[in-house]
Design a protein that fits this description.
- Helix content is 28%, strand content 24%.
- It is built from 26 helices and 61 strands.
- Strands 4, 5, 7, 8, 9, 10, 12, 13 and 14 form a 9-stranded mixed beta sheet that branches. Strands 18-20-23-22-21-24-25-19 form an 8-stranded mixed beta sheet.
- The longest helix has 40 residues, at 674-713.
- It is extended, with a radius of gyration of 48 Å.
- 34% of the residues are buried.
- It is a single-pass type I membrane protein.
- One of its GO terms (molecular function) is semaphorin receptor activity.
- Residues 18-95, 198-247 form the PSI domain.
Amino acid sequence: MNYDKCTSGNVKTHTVDICARISHGAVPFCKNISPETWPSCHKCTASRFNCTWCIKNHRCSRYPLDDCLENDEFVAGQNSNGLSIPYRNGPEFCPRIGGSVTYIRVPSGSTEKITISGIHLRDYQMPVKCFFSIGSGKTVGARVIPYDTQNKLIECESVDFSYIQDSKIWNVPLKILWGSTHPKPLDNPKGMQVQMYKCEKMADSCGECLTQKPLYNCGWCSDEDACSIQRNCHNTANWLPSQSNCPNPQINKIYPLMGPREGGTLLTIEGRNLGKTYQDIVSNVDIDGIQCSPIRDDYVPSTKIVCITGAWTVDKGKKSGYVNVVVAEAFAARSPQTFTYVDPVIKSIDPKKGPKSGGTKVTLYGDYLDAGTEREVFFGSKDDDQYKCIIQSVNSMSLVCITPRVSKAGSPGKLLMQIDKQIVMTDMEFTYIKDPVISKVLRKTAIVSGGIMVDVDGEGFDNIKYPKMILYHQAKTYEGDCTVQSPSRLRCRSPMLDSSMMSSVKYEEGLSLNFGFILDNVMATQNLSRNATFGNFTIFQDPVFLKFENELKSYQKKNEYLTINGKNLNRIQAEDVSIRIGKEFCNGTFIMTEKLTCTPPKYQPPSRKGGKYPEVEVIIGSNFSQYIGQLKYDESEFPLPYEYIILIAVGGGVLVIAVIIVIIMYTMKAKKNDSMMKRMQIQMDNLELKVAKECKEAFAELQTDMTELTSDLYGQVAIPFWDYRTYCMRVLFPQETDIDHPVIKDLEVDYARRDSVEKGLKLFSQLINNKTFLLIFVRTLESHKHFTMRDRVNVASLISVALQTKMEYATDILKTLLAELIEKAVDGKNHPKLLLRRTESVAEKMLTNWFTFLLYKFLRECAGEPLFMLYSAMKSQVSKGPVDASTSEARYSLSEDKLIRQQIEYKLMTIYVQDMDQFTQSPHPVRVLDCDTISQVKEKILDAIYKNAPFSSRPIKDDVDLVLIDQSPPTAEWSSGYKGRLILQDDDSTTRVEGEYKRLNTLCHYKVPDGAYMTLVPKQPPSYNNLSLSSTEKSRFYVPEKFLPHHTRSPSFQRTVSPQSVHVDIVDNYGVKCYHLVKQHDNEANNQGDRGSKMVSEIYLTRLLATKGTLQQFVDDLFERIFSTAHRGTALPLAIKYMFDFLDDQALLHAIEPDIVHIWKSNSLPLRFWVNVIKNPNFVFDIYKSNIVDSCLSVAAQTFMDSCSMNEHRLGKDSPSSKLLYAKDIPKYKKWVERYYQDVKMMPAISDQDMTAMLTDESRQHLDEFNTTAALYELYKYVQKYSEDLFAALEEDEFAKKNRLTYKLEQVRMAMDAEVYC
């Protein structure tokens, strides 16, 4: 044996650094030994080195005689060589902790004495202690109990074992320490530890608890409904040990819920306490008596059973039943859902043929196609896998699979489908036909960005649904979409490539690539470049276009062409290029090597981004676009706006017509006498003056009114929104008063019957919340011939109110009813375009109510402001001119029917209104007209004083009197009655009577001067309707002599008294017609203020155009706000996106054309909700809507409806004026609508989770708005009325019979009709 040089380390640090090399295969020396390297006897003596363990010194040594105590005791290593000491070798002689287990298990919270086996303990190692690593560590004493010659038992003193962590187990390392001076750890070769555990954390259910390992001693404590050890259970008699079975098995879920009648479905049952072993449930699972055989390998004790369903062959049709599990033949559980046996049916297949190379996506349509668990589709024999169609997706009504490749085209293969054990046979066939063939590719060049149109000729393309073009470059492929133009023509878009691949390619040469076409799975067309006939496809660099200087270019119409400079243009074709200028396109694109030329639109198009000038953008194909700059058109040669040109043209046209009439009349009357000619000339002169004056006024009004109206409306501070309940009531029950309807009052039932009625309504509420019952209820009522349209509206609103706190369920009901309505419209006599147009069903009114509930927040935060501004603008504009109090006709109107077609002379006045209770304050200035009636003046005064107050909180004009006071500024004398005053009324003793007509009093009638002072006081009794003036005022106010009082001093207004000496004549109104500005007759002479003079009344239609121009901004603002998906951070309401997606899905399901879907969307939201709101802003705001404002709103609403229509409006001379008025605006609005629908469609779909959260929040916010019990009571009246039909319908429905709905409804009726005896 040869040794290299070895050195000993520092003994004080218990380190021996020995470098040893051993020759001839001898045992190596102990080297690099430290207490940390081999800290235990077992590791030291079991090493491959020549090492010895000193027991007393508690160290591993190469030279134990030198390193250890003289009287030390040694254990030689198993590879020790030449150590002449009388001790055995190997780790089995080390003093150590014995035992065969690694863990000593102790329940948390207990105090235990731990007993451990000690092997080869020496007497000098006494005493011993136990150390447990709990918290900062616990050390306790221990006693050693002799067991045999080699083994002893070490019994540790009691220790509290507990932990607060929320975990099932917690391991506690332990040490046995020996020696009193410097305790040393006894060897623990197996790493024995104490394992604390908590039974309550190991299991949540009884079944899981009892299936824990027996060594934990866990059982189920029934009192505390928790897993625990026996001593922790308060009542140990109710503690179930692990040998028991849980008495309360529970099934939480089963799936699938449907399977074929022949059985074979793998039915999964999940729950709690479903047995401990497979034997507990092996023969005890059934579906309403039909055996379901559990699978041993899939059984998870206590929580999961997978069984194979048996067959149901008793009769045809569906069979539903609950799943029953009996555990250990003692404890039973029933599933909350039913499992249904169904007969899957295949109704149609699309397409019915495809290439023999396979790859065709085939869609099967039918019923219950997703029933069961395993399914296969074959086109031919089911025993031959070459006919197996690979399933991609499946749902209840459709299944998509990919056809396989077959060896040859030939006769059609029968379609059959196997679902679990049931084979679904059909007479439908799928035919494999010859693969499509490509004969010619008409273009084989493109650019890197792709999107270039490539036409392909061949045959058999009409059988390919999803063709694609493909380019190959190195290991990558690039695909572009294709469309089938005809059986012999494909049109593809070239794929987009990575621009980096062109870095080393010269432009003139291009990059030559292999190419082909993906036609299902036809291999022959996937790489045409392998055929020399087709060659390769060449890709060139994208063209480069130079921007305009300073990104702005002037364009003069006389130059005709727009030129854009660029590079690399000779590889593209004219049909590839389009040049967009703003919102329009340039015409006649011509390409040269470095230039593009085209002819811009005749007039400067609007900017797409709202800028001053339109943007110029070059578009090549479908992927490449480059911004060039902006195009500035030369100034127009005719600076007048289009509206002004129309006004001048109309006025000129009318003038020309008038001149022609004059000439004709002059020719016909030429032979009449001179006096006749003079009268004729005078009349024509007057007519010309009228026409000229009217046109001039209309032109001036259009220029001035817009600015004045806008400045006036900015004074509006607050928008008087109705609260949620009032708003909903006005929409849901428009015929009812919003304070007396039962749904907002306490239930009105006799006290003696209240308990029984409330009990019955509680049961009825449960029925209404049953989807089957509610649908049958609605269908039954709608099918009854005496169920009127008014009843449909009322029932729909009552259902909406009853379900308002359960909006998620209400939405589900609405979708089901709408789906049925759509199916009827598609399959029935009615054209689908008429769907949702009229309220002919409960579903249509429920849809209106659904949007009413969910769009209230959107109205308040977004759309309400422009709607209120439009209403205010109309009201303000109408009030600027005369308004006939009798006919509601006005000078300023959007409606031809409500237009005053006379020249009414009037004067604008300002009156000052003083608050009599606070006369020291400054009076309110109010603008009025001298032709206003007294009621109209009172309305304007109330509008001015209560400008920002809701209408319902304002005084009513009929409850106050208007008092004219002295014109001089107010003083304290008013309160003393020293000044004169006059109560003004529409009809009093001074009213002028003209034959059978009586004209309402106006300010002009009373000769009220401009700047007069007035006040409003509470309505005076009839006896107070007197005229009291001082002698100095008689000359200023028109008062007939017979109405003057005989006293000389007017009493104080607070003490108004009508002296008995005042004589008042009262005119009998019987048979007398009242009018204001225009008399309602046709046959009398054409006097000022009459309805005659029909010949020239059309000249006043220019006022419609002036009014329209004034209100245009407000109409645009409202329409733009409604047809925007986002405005000032306000997101599109989820309800709109959700309902539009639902309509899109239904259209896809029934193969409905896009134009019809557009009409559905317009009928569902704009027509059913927005038109109603626009026509009736008083539903949303606390305002008063006059007749003339209502007619203007109707024109705006009609324009809104026309904007959503798909029909082209052909206008002519007989077209309504409302359509002519907005003829040029409607195309713009139509584009807004189309963009809005497209934007909504492109938005991400709303997840069910988000929609449910929104609906739940909506229900929570308005939980107490309505008395749902009263709504149920009103609905029950319809149950009583149609009870016979309803009970018959419930008896005929299978699900209703299974749910015992007839019995439950009978219970409701018994409770509601219960007699009460006092």
